[in-house]
Structure of Glycine--tRNA ligase:
Amino acid sequence: MAKKEENNLLNKLVSFAKRRGFIFQSSEIYGGFSSCYDFGPIGVELKNNIKKVWWNEMINLHDNIVGLDASILMSPKVWAASGHLSAGFSDELVECKKCHHRFRKDLLERNKCPDCGGELMEPRKFNLMMKTFVGPVEEEAAVTYLRAETCQGIYVNFKNVMQSMRMKVPFGIAQIGKSFRNEITPKDFIFRTREFEQMEMQWFCDPKDADKFFEYWLKERMDWYLKLGIKKENIRIKETAKKELAHYAKRAVDIEYKFPFGWKEIEGVHNRGDWDLSNHSKHSKQDLSYTGDDGKKFIPYIIETSGGVERTLFTFLCAGFKEVEGGRTKTTDSTKEIEIMLDLNKKLAPIKVAVLPLVKNKEEITKKAKEIFDMLKIHFVCQYDESGSIGRRYRRQDEIGTPFCVTIDFETLEDDNVTLRDRNTMKQDRIKIEHLSQLLKNELS
Ligand code: GAP
């Protein structure tokens, strides 16, 4: 894709996300706050659905994975032991001598400032941990950090979870939560930000089985994206070269998506070996080894799947965003401009059903529509909308990916049938109100 086209599509997505209530710039009324974003009413539903679908897949569908919600603030000793306070969790920062803009050295294509072409200073190491103080006094003893990855909360709870849940290796612990990194160059809308959420699963296994489980989890994670509608040609895996591996990793494979700005990582599958448990064992002086039923004692190896919630959301937005020149509707000529349709998997769709009275100035119709809305809202996230022409209202729902619209018209008052419209096919069927909930449950499950 040409650079201009890429920017064009990215700009379109940014303004679409704002206009339709998905994503707003943080602190916008004060001119914005760099790299922070707020998820609007439609965006938060999408975000929650992504987390729900991931949680269901990892925890509910696997007997041997359990959940956890560890705190964001932890003892700074955790970060000393994990290696995050040392050079291993630093980026090389370069500064332009002319405009003083700063960049991550590894992301630069040339040894010149990408903004003004100026000469660059010598690189400096820059640690990504976000420092904070616990308590009222800002002194060295009060320093701690906002977590940079959720998994450390899992490692320090390895024994607690294993013992309380009577787990046996191999087993997994999964968690979703916020992480923070003082990124030098947050970039590309919500792709790289300083505050983000991770969905991580840590699989504890016998070292001899680590390679086998690595392949298993890599396939599982790829299949998850494909199942949710990401096209094969837009997703790929990329092995990380040995010399580029993170300080903890024995092996790392990135799952990449073809964004408007190129192929980029959305999730990593890592073999962390015994790095984390050995280091926490050493620093905390606690025995974090495991003894199998056969008496064999070992420090489990960890296979990790680590994805970002915002990057996943961005992936589904890019994948689902469709513009149709001249409009999709062939039956009316009310619109001939570009129509947008968000082709989201039904499980991810922010609003599942829109309830639309054909007209708003006929009380019997709006009353009936509200009754149907009240009946459906117990089961699904629904939206009631009576403003504008019915065609305009259908298009509004298509734009945010609502799979079904239910229209209540004059005939409904006679025969208790409503029109059920499908987002993708635009097919309209007449359905008895008494069958509506069950039919939608079948369609949306
Ligand atoms: N626990 C391993 C770990 O954190 P990572 O490759 O540094 O590994 C995993 O991060 C995932 O977290 C990435 O694939 C990405 O989806 C997300 N992520 C990392 N840094 C991010 C950032 N600055 N903004 C948004 N998402 C980020």
